[in-house]
Amino acid sequence: MAQGIIEETYPLTFRQEEARELGRYLKNRQGVVLIGMKKVGISNFLRFFLGNKDIPGTYIQDYKKHLFIPVDLNDLVECEIAPFWTLTLKRIVDSVENSKIEEKVKKKISAMFMESIQLQDLFFTIDSVRRALLKITEQGFLPTLFFIRFDRMKDCVTPEFFANLDGIKTANHEAAFVFTSYMPLKKLIPSLPNTSWSVFFKNLYIKPAKREDVETIFNAYKKRFDVSLPKNLESYFFELVDGYTQYLQLSLIFLHDRKESVKTEESLGEGLSRDERINLQSEELWESLDDESKNVLVKVINSQKILPSEKKRALYLWNTGFIRVNSASNHVFSPLFEDFIRRKEKETNTKELSEEFSKKENLLFNYLQQRKNEICEREEIIEAVWPEEEELGVSDWAIDKLVARVRNKLKIQKNNLEIQTIKTRGYKLIGD
Asked: Cα 235 from chain centroid?
């Protein structure tokens, strides 16, 4: 597949409403949390927003110089505080290096990073982040840190962590923070303190994309995945994926992998609904929800009345686009997700789990068996099991879920082999 940031080729009108609102917040130097269901396309949107040189002039609409600093927390091997700050400082260095900031300032900020690596002192690293942002501001630039997939930090952040962010913002009012998460930070991290800046954070919900934006993604990625779809099926295809970026990209992989072209709506819908990759993604969406939200979704599918109290408690579903409203009636987004829930609802606790491995389970088991008694790193597992999805990014959840399934089936098979978890690294197959 061709490399490069494909989102930079999107038209300036891509996700126009979201871009305009985010630009308005950044103009006012307000903190923003971009919230959307997992893999809805926030990263896709941000690659466009951060990569298109015309964004500041169009959506922020001021004449100041902006420096966007993306910090993708998927790059963290260990989701802990010290690696977080080290990665943040490194990404500041990277962004400064590619900017028009004076060379002597670039060298000073780079020297801060090298010293922090040598000292391995958390407080020095945090202070280096603060000082680096101040130097950027002194150069006439407005720095904005984009913490992508901040939800990965939910189990390790503390009030002290937010106090440090608060201190950076207090020292430099021109700095701004943008977080991405599948949940509002206050719900994701109940210990989140009401510090002087966190109370001013604005939640910006990113719902599944509109039809014209879906067509933009489709036309860009169909070339990368080398697929063609009959014109008479495109409308139905867009209805199935319903603006959800991961469904769209996985569906293109499905079409790429097929030996014969899809010719009917029935074969397209049936094929995508039964695709293991799409079902694994649907399960990740389902398990990201609490029980109240799941119950509301089931009621919507069964055309049952939703009480005002139920909607209030599950408002997240409407805010993120899990539930769409057409002609005053509710419906679940994407027929693919609705079909998954219907099948999930039919399952019973007494249903026996098949002993047979699915395609992905078999790939995982064979790979672990080939490397028996060796540690298999997560990145290596992705290359072996999801080579077609490596470019899109495979979540920690997907890897852990697949391992859990293989473990269960090994028990059912009464197999003496066992999969060990190697913390922060991966897995190892042991046994006779």
From this structure: 26
DSSP code of residue 60: I
Residue with tokens 């672990």: 368
Mean pLDDT score, 365-375? 93
How far is 288 from 401, CA to CA, in rounded Å? 13
Confidence at 4, pLDDT banded by 50, 70, 90: low
Sign of CA pseudo-dihedral 255, 10, 29, 83: positive
Rounded to 10 degrees, the C-alpha dihedral 278/279/285/288 comes to: -140
Distance CA 344, CA 294 (A): 11
How far is 318 from 331, CA to CA, in rounded Å? Answer: 10
**CB atoms inside a 10 Å sphere around CB 335:** 17
Delineate the domains of the chain, giving CATH numbers in brackets: 7-205 (3.40.50.300), 283-346 (1.10.10), 359-430 (1.10.10.10)
CA distances from 188 to 31, 40, 359, 409, 424 (A): 17, 18, 34, 32, 22
pTM: 0.91
- Residue 134 phi, psi (nearest 5): -65, -40
Confidence of residue 355 (pLDDT cuts 50, 70, 90): confident
Cα Rg for the chain, rounded, in angstroms? 23
430: its two tokens: 């042991």
Cα separation, 193 vs 189, whole angstroms: 9
Taking residue 114's Cβ as centre, other Cβ atoms within 10 Å add up to 10
Under a CB-based contact definition with an 8 Å cutoff, are residues 105 and 139 in contact? Answer: yes
Mean pLDDT throughout 343-347?
83
Per DSSP, the three-state class of 143 is strand
| Average pLDDT over all residues of the chain | 91
Query: By three-state DSSP, how is residue 408 classified?
Result: helix
